Amino acid sequence: MNDSADLLKELKIDRSAPPPRESRRAWLYGIGVAAVVLLASFVAWLVVSRGDAIEVRTARMVAIGNGNASTSVLDATGYVVARRMATVSAKVTGKVREVLIEEGQRVEAGEVMATLDPVDADAQRTLAADQLGAARSQVEFARAQLREAEATVGRLSQLVDQQLVSRAQYDQAVAERDALRAQVATTDRQTRVAQDQLAIAALGVDNTVVRAPFAGVVIAKAAQPGEMISPLSAGGGFTRTGIGTIVDMDSLEVEVDVGESYIGRVKPGMPVEATLNAYPDWKIPAEVTAIIPTADRGKATVKVRIALHEQDQRIVPDMGVRVSFLEQARPEGEERPAGVLVPAAAIVERDGRSVAYALAEPGTAESEVELRTLELGRTLGDDREVLAGLAGGDEVVIDPPAGLEDGAQVRVAEDDGDA
């Protein structure tokens, strides 16, 4: 009996003992399989959903125009240049005797900048003056002979009528008179030639004086006394070609290179705000004066000339400058609604309306698109002004596909850039 009871006790389950190792391993394996299945399902969903999204390019909108204030439609960089700048030289080759200029000095039109050694020019003028004196003496001698010959002809004309002298003698006297008249005319012309030679010699003396062609400021002094100077640089590196360089500070303007893609935004007479790199807090009012009708093939730019409305000694040639091309300010009391600048490629026609597709979540890699009806304004080059339907910070689709619908899922291309 006791043996049976002992056997029954041995058949009890000991619940405090740990489960077998094989059961725990099977449980963990099942959990891992389930996780792998869930992960594979998630990846498959991503692949399927990404394949449905349409890849597009987008551009971020920039707000322009607010009230009557002029706003920038384009920024560019350039340099201050002078329309009137000259390196002044003598008209003749000679040795510099005196230089009367220094850098920074202001000179007036016609003011003497330097003089050359005038010895040769003075000698030429003296010779020409002597030749003129000799020609005048010959004229006086020829005229005296002519007066005598005319008197002789007058006397013989009376005697030949009375047959007191022969006709041959009279004809000889007339011929001598006519020859002397021709000689007087020749000496007169020789005198005028001598006068012209004297004037040329005097001009040669004047050419040894170098004068300023216009009023300006000296920015470079290129020669010193004792040096040879020539407009043709006859002596190579040992001969100077100029005395100095002067600039008309009243002719300073700005030249900038504008990209071909944006030149349509620039018009002659357009207001401009210029800022010198040296004085970033100084805003100089300016105006577009001309768009040079040629493009730089290498840089794909067009040169624009800008006139400064302020003249100041702080503005000097070759200074770097940043310019902002402004839209025309509205008249007092008339306001322009705030708008945005949108690439024309983002605007399409749908059912007779101008629309654009904007991202519901700007700045994300994937988003739904919203169809926006637009109110258009001006055309600015390759862009359009949108007065209503879009706001600054919105992101629109560039060249939207024909089948793109409102609410469609799109994916922004990796090489996307902002407008």
TrEMBL record:
Domain of life of the source: Bacteria
Compartment annotation: Cell envelope
Keyword line: Coiled coil, Membrane, Transmembrane, Transmembrane helix, Transport
Source taxonomy: Bacteria, Pseudomonadati, Pseudomonadota, Gammaproteobacteria, Lysobacterales
Entry GO MF terms: efflux transmembrane transporter activity
SUPFAM superfamilies membership: HlyD-like secretion proteins
Annotated ranges, domain Multidrug resistance protein MdtA-like barrel-sandwich hybrid: 84-230
Keyword Metal-binding in annotation: no
Annotated family: Belongs to the membrane fusion protein (MFP) (TC 8.A.1) family.
Name recorded for this polypeptide: RND family efflux transporter, MFP subunit
Location (main, coarse): other
Source organism: Lysobacter spongiicola DSM 21749
Stretch list, region Disordered: 398-419
Keyword Transmembrane: yes
GO cellular component, one term: efflux pump complex
Ranges in a coiled coil: 132-190
Transmembrane segments: 26-48
Domain CusB-like beta-barrel positions: 254-327
Multidrug resistance protein MdtA-like C-terminal permuted SH3 domain boundaries: 340-399
